Structures are given as C-alpha cells and as structure tokens.
C-alpha cells in the first residue's frame, strides 16, 4: 500500500503557494506569464466556486498540493466537480493538471494524489470520476484504480 | 455547410424545458428520478455559476437546446468552462451530454450543436475545447473539427 513519505502531507492550494505551484506545473505544460496577483485571484475564485449537492454546497474546484517535510510543494493536482441532469442530477469529478516535481519521482506521489482526489470526489457524491491522459500513462492510471472508457478529443483555434 | 432546418433555433436551456430535456437526455443514458423542482434548481444553479475570465465574469455552465419550428426541444448539450493556472490562467471548455432526439437524426443537429458550443467556448476565451466520446463516434467528432488527443479513463465505486 502506498503511503506518503514521513513528514509529507496533502492540503488544499493556498495563495502563498504561488511560486512553488507555478514551478511544479512547468513539468506538465506551458504555464505562461502567471503573476502572483493572477494566481491569488484564481485561488480565490476556486475557493468561492460551489456546486449544489443535495442540500449542501460543496466546492466545485478542489486544487491540492503535496508538501514535503520542509513544507515545499512537490506535487499538485485538482478535481473539478460538475453538476449534471443525467444520473439523477448527478455529480461528476474531473481530475485535472496532475504534476509531480522532477526530483520527487518514484515516491508514488502521483498515485497518492490521484487516490486522494478520487476519494474526495466520491465522498462529495460523484457517481464517477474521470480524467484524460496520454496513451503512455494508461498503465499508471490503471494502478490508481481507473479503467479506459473512451477517447479524448480536442478543438483548438 | 450545415445549417439548421427552417424554423429551428438554438438557445440556452430554460426551467420550462424540464419534460422535453429529460426526455431527450434518455437517448444518452439513465436520467433517473429528476423531478421538476430538481431540474429547475439545477438550471438556476447553472445560470448563477460564473468563471472569472480576465476582468469579465462569464457563465461556467452553458447548457443549450435546439428547438424545432413548433418550439419542441429536439437536441441538448452543454459546455462547462474551467479556469486553470496553466496556459496563463487559461480557460478550457468541456463539451458534455450531447443528445439528439431519435426522430431527429440525420438533420445534422448534433454537428450544429457541437459547432455552436465550441464557438461559444472559444469566444469566451477558451484556448481549447475538449470532449470525451466512444471510439465509434470519433469520425463524427472529426467532422465537427475535433481531433483525437488522448484516452478517457473513469473510476466508479
């Protein structure tokens, strides 16, 4: 069973994580010119976005980080919760933007973060949690308990 | 070029569309016990959910219907707009829950709805629009201007 290394923990992203989250996300793709103000505004927007789940209001955006024993951000990822009409006005979790710092590979941080976000989404009431990945990462996500179910397609201008 | 049949139009979902939208969605999957009250509450929640896009607030949920010349709902679909940190705090559109009434197939309503939602998302500022589909529908979405870019995976309890 995978467990976090001693001293590591998982928590929601906070505005003070600006530099370390931006640095961690660069492993994944182009981050671009994200200023501290834009980052903080985004985190504030995420914190204030809710979804109606039965009689409760839950958070739509659930961005998290894993921090190491020194409190440094070493991984990040999120799950966005969507409300539908189908499946009895069901909720679906979308796992997005999983990134692990290059010097932290091999510690199962990606697996632990996926499992954490997946559980969070199910406990919030999601009937399913989905994610899109490259063909080469299918085996990794299968280890996280996911199974192949469709094709992702995109449209760019 | 695909155009809507005479008298048909595309507009946002309204609370009064309850019965016809629920009926149309049954083509897609299990809708379940969605009462009028739950439907109306969901539409109200969708209408009030916003995303920060630069200095503007845009709608996060963009559920639409195509109605025929008699005003009956004959197709439905939505695009959810997500705010990220990557790509300069970029926006991504998620096209979801496209359904066309069985007796309306062959009129290119699915294609027209996808093109409409895709354009709406790009005009709102999305750098890409994505969707997940079955392998057998890849050719259809390619006609809509999409290309295969990854694998969809899911996790269910």
Automatic annotation (TrEMBL), chains A, B:
InterPro entries: Acyl_CoA_acyltransferase (IPR016181), GNAT_dom (IPR000182), GNPNAT1-like (IPR039143). Its EC number is 2.3.1.4. This is Glucosamine 6-phosphate N-acetyltransferase. Pathway: Nucleotide-sugar biosynthesis; UDP-N-acetyl-alpha-D-glucosamine biosynthesis; N-acetyl-alpha-D-glucosamine 1-phosphate from alpha-D-glucosamine 6-phosphate (route I): step 1/2. Keywords: Acyltransferase, Transferase. GO terms for biological process: UDP-N-acetylglucosamine biosynthetic process. It catalyses: D-glucosamine 6-phosphate + acetyl-CoA = N-acetyl-D-glucosamine 6-phosphate + CoA + H(+). It holds the Pfam family Acetyltransf_1. It comes from Lachancea lanzarotensis. It is an enzyme of class 2 (transferase). Residues 8-157 form the N-acetyltransferase domain. One of its GO terms (molecular function) is glucosamine 6-phosphate N-acetyltransferase activity. Coiled coil: none annotated. Belongs to the acetyltransferase family. GNA1 subfamily. PROSITE patterns: GNAT.
